[in-house]
Amino acid sequence: MKVLITGGAGYLGTALCEALANEKSIKEVIIYDNLSRQNYNLLIGKSKLDERFKLVEADILDSRNLRKAVNAVDVVFHFAAKVTTPFADQNAHLFEQVNHWGTAELTYAIEESKVQKLIYMSSVSVYGSGDDVKAIDQSLNPKTFYGISKMRGEEHVSRLQDKYETYIVRCGNVYGYNKSMRFDAVINKFLFEANFHGKINIHGNGEQHRPFVHIDTVTRQMISILNGEHQSGTFNLIEHNYSVNNIVEVLQELYPDLEMIFINNNMKFRELKVDAGKGNMGQSDQRLSLLRERLFAFKHEFTF
To answer: N or C: which terminal CB in the chain sees fewer CB atoms within 10 Å?
Structure first.
């Protein structure tokens, strides 16, 4: 089996590459990434990928290189995206170009290839926000340019559902350690700031909820799709709906002297909770003890 990972040098791509290295059925992995985040961690270090892994440094909008890469594989994981926090709303044009039209370019290339399976990493941001719990079968109502661009990407992937084995995975906020870290994601950012600065900034009253999923869970589910353990379709991928204050409570246990600075603490920020039952690939687990265990392990990855 030959695999292409767009955005393969990023946070999720790095985790998947390390997992694929243990899969004997994999003959080749093409890591397709423009390295725009200057994240080279997958490409260096003592833990090396073997000769089955190849880097193609190219952009998702580079149709010539993209088609060449797609034509060489059986399975495509589409992770390449302009990524941001769920309710950020800057760089409308960049979201549109990369997330919408980049996905369109990929689907066009797949239609001219022998690809058998496409896994598209979407986002829970396509649900928008509100006080109700968002379910897999309800209408989408994204509130940001990012969410809109991911929804448009879903529309392009949906066109292929009658011809190919396709998976649309609406992923929650990913947290946890790997060598290609993202420290703009809320839990990772809080832990970094708590460890090195001894203080964190909390916007609003902290009661706003977000859906979260650990990076190991994301990787495990990607491998299960690869191995045919799911039928094609659209899924959520979350484990917890935590409030910001839930996360802070755990951080205070890990860092008893933690200073918290509330910014606009009289404001209630947008709410997003996603149903962790029907249509969810992750196993629902709202326990703070699990978050504590995972953040404790993450804390010990810091060198000081």
So the answer is: C
Residues with Cβ within 8 Å of 136's Cβ and at least 6 positions away in sequence, in order, are 170, 234, 235, 236, 275, 278, 279, 280
Contact between residue 120 and residue 167 where contact means Cβ atoms under 8 Å apart: yes
Distance CA 286, CA 242 (A): 7
pLDDT tens profile 222-258: 999 999 999 999 999 999 999 999 999 999 999 999 9
8 Å CB contact between 67 and 103: no
How large is the angle between the packed helices 244-254 and 186-196, nearest 10 degrees?
A: 30
Count CB-CB contacts under 10 A for residue 46. 4
3-state secondary structure 190-235: HHHHHHHCCEEEEECCCCCEEEEEEHHHHHHHHHHHHCCCCCCEEE
CB 6 within 8 A of CB 61: no
Task: For the chain, report the end-to-end CA distance as a whole number of angstroms.
Answer: 41
Cα dihedral 74, 221, 14, 200 in deg (nearest 10): 150
Instruction: Measure CA 212 to chain center.
Output: 10
Task: Kindly list the distances between the CA atom of residue 125 and the CA atoms of 105, 223, 237, 278, 298, in Å, as whole numbers in the listed order.
Answer: 22, 23, 12, 18, 26
In whole angstroms, give the CA distance from residue 123 to residue 304: 33
The token pair at 196 is 């090195």
- Two tokens at 18? 């390390």
**Does 14 score more than 60 pLDDT?**
yes
pLDDT at 15 over 60: yes
Looking at the DSSP assignment, which residues form a beta bridge with residue 165?
117
Q: HSE, CB side, 13 Å, CA atoms: give it for residue 230.
A: 25
Please report the domains of the chain, with CATH numbers, ordered by start residue.
2-174+211-239 (3.40.50.720), 177-210+241-273+285-299 (3.90.25.10)
Task: Count the Cβ atoms, other than its own, within 10 Å of residue 215.
Answer: 22
